[in-house]
Amino acid sequence: MNYLFITVLHNLKLENIHNRGIKLGANVHISNGEGPLAETIHTLPLMETMGEHSLLEFGDEAAYLYIKGKFEGINNISEFININKNGIIVFKMLREVQSYTHRLWFMRDNSVYIRDGFLLIYDKKMNNEYSNARSFKGSLSEIITNRNGKIESVTFSDNEIRKVYNDYSDELNFSDSYWTTIDENDEDTIGGKLPIPDIFIKEKDSNRVDRAKYFTLAARASSIIPTKLLNYISALECLFTTSTNELAHQISERVAILIGSNIDDRLQYYSEIKVAYNYRSKIVHGDSIKKYYEKIESIEAVCQKVDFVLRTVFSQHSDIFSKTDEEIENYFKNKLFKD
């Protein structure tokens, strides 16, 4: 059966009006024009099942992503329903689109997020009418905020939209066969609707980058600055620590070594991460942080800087963190004592 999936990219603005959309993959487009909408949400059965409020979210030149393809080996609605238990396929699609929107953050700070995803399956389409059609819906709960804890629109150029997709295409999978390939993880998490606890379990091949991405998402999904900073620091701990000794010094030193371009840069990064860690200690132990406003940099300013550090690390240095603990330790030791 054929399928069409569509979801609004909240708070994303495109620099131009697109009819068919910006083509990302063989079957993936991002658009803000009326053309694709006339063929999707403005036709039956989606108009009957989406609801007025959901339809209105596609108005005012809202950016949206849509995927068109074909489920090979699925010949009728009953076969699809049998595979799509608990909406597992819809949630796989939502999570994959969410993976793309998260990578927009690797380029620059934003509060772009997705919520509702609509899937239409059908046999044939003729004159904007779909035969033997059925619609499905899934929703995610994460509302992303920027580094200031606010929800604000941000404009990405056409080239930026394409670049993010191309740069991370090996980490994204929008192929037709992927949606209906259901593994144990998909069943346990309903296609990603529920968190994946395995990323914390050593026996399940847990790795530091996946753990760091989990905490980064948790930070971006919080509008409370102390909670956001707490999760950002946890992400830094996942990436940079190889022992439990002197964590604040260990992280501060390694961040400075990795992204500082000169001695002044490195001293500044070292100091900023130490301040962030002081805030983190206060927050995690339930202490008040009010007194700190008069003594050192505000927690808002510190959170902005840690956000920048994490983005830089993920976008430019993530390959380092696939190494073993010993290799990471030796890497930073060699950098520290380099002539």
Q: Segments where pLDDT lies below 50 for 5+ residues?
A: none
Strand-pairing-aware structural class = alpha+beta
**Total number of distinct structural domains:** 2
Number of helices: 15
Shape: elongated
The portion of residues assigned to helices is: 40-55%
Q: How do the strands of the widest beta sheet line up side by side?
A: 3-4-5-1-6-9
Q: Tags for this entry?
A:
339 residues, alpha+beta, 6-stranded antiparallel beta sheet, two-stranded parallel ribbon
Explain this structure.
By secondary structure, the protein is α+β, with helices and mostly antiparallel strands. Helices cover 47% and strands 13% of the residues. Strands 3-4-5-1-6-9 form a six-stranded antiparallel β-sheet. A two-stranded parallel sheet has the order 2-10. A hairpin with a 4-residue loop joins strand 3 and strand 4. Helix 9 runs antiparallel to helix 10 and helix 10 packs across helix 12. It is elongated and about 70 Å long.
